[in-house]
């Protein structure tokens, strides 16, 4: 299989739409500060603020410029390659499957820890799902850490996953970063990849 054919194409439509929607919503929250946008973020399911649609809308909200920049840069870097490989329909299914899986993982952590006073926003769960898929599909491609240090994708995924696990365990009840949502995105991505491989649909 010639992986290189998927690294030189233009920006595919699904990734483009994800980028546009995220940027537009971020701009809206930045310029229309008089509106309370928390209704689009995800609350704990047993609180009165929780709405079922939030397990999707939370993926399109971001806290600050750095937050949206790094998430959208990852969507651009990894998502474009995967969409070129899979096509838009399969890519979008994977993206939302891992993003919703990350939301479910965060709900479980809130339930187990009893610490559910906050709100979760960001595409990071789906992004970690994309990273997992990229590392699986293109294990020997180089990812340049800080744009300088080349690391093979398969090792980058393993290292990053272990870092998130250690950070999540170390800050189980007090960290405001949703480490277990990140891991949830990777876990649900792994489940779907195994399922597709079993059904012979991973490369089609």
Number of strands: 2
Strand content: under 5%
Portion of residues in helices? Answer: 55-70%
Low-confidence runs:
1-5
Largest sheet: 2 strands, antiparallel
Helix and strand pattern? HHHHHEEHH
Q: Reading side by side through the largest sheet, how are the strands ordered? A: 1-2
Quaternary organisation of the protein chains: single chain
Overall radius of gyration: 17 Å
What does the overall shape look like? globular
Termini separation: 12 Å
The chain-level structural class is mainly alpha
Average pLDDT number: 88
Count of helical segments? 7
General description of the model:
The chain is mainly alpha-helical. 60% of the residues lie in helices and 4% in strands. The protein contains 7 helices and 2 strands; from the N terminus they run αααααββαα. It has helices spanning 13-31, 54-57, 65-86, 88-113, 124-137, 153-170, 179-198; strands at 142-145, 149-152. The chain has a two-stranded antiparallel ribbon. α1 runs antiparallel to α3 and α5 packs antiparallel against α6.
Outline:
Helices cover 60% and strands 4% of the residues. With 204 residues, the chain is mainly alpha-helical.
Task: List its salient traits.
204 residues, mainly alpha, two-stranded antiparallel ribbon, 7 helices, 2 strands, 60% helix, disordered N terminus
Q: What's the topology here?
A:
Blueprint: H1 13-31, H2 54-57, H3 65-86, H4 88-113, H5 124-137, E1 142-145, E2 149-152, H6 153-170, H7 179-198
Helix pairs in contact: 1-3, 3-4, 3-5, 4-5, 4-7, 5-6, 5-7, 6-7
């Amino acid at each position: 299989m010639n992986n290189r054919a998927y690294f030189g194409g233009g920006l595919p439509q699904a990734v483009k739409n994800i980028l546009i929607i995220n940027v537009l919503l971020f701009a809206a929250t930045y310029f229309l500060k008089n509106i309370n946008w928390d209704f689009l973020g995800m609350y704990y399911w047993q609180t009165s603020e929780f709405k079922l649609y939030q397990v999707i809308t939370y993926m399109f909200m971001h806290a600050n410029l750095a937050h949206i920049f790094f998430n959208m840069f990852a969507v651009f870097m990894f998502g474009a390659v995967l969409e070129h490989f899979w096509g838009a329909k399969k890519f979008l299914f994977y993206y939302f499957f891992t993003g919703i899986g990350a939301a479910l993982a965060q709900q479980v952590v809130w339930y187990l820890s009893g610490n559910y006073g906050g709100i979760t926003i960001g595409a990071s769960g789906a992004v970690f799902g994309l990273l997992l898929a990229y590392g699986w599909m293109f294990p020997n491609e180089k990812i340049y850490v800080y744009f300088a240090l080349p690391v093979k994708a398969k090792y980058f995924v393993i290292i990053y996953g272990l870092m998130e696990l250690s950070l999540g365990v170390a800050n189980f009840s007090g960290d405001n970063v949703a480490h277990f949502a990140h891991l949830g995105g990777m876990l649900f991505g792994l489940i779907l990849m195994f399922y597709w491989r079993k059904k012979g649909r991973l490369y089609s």
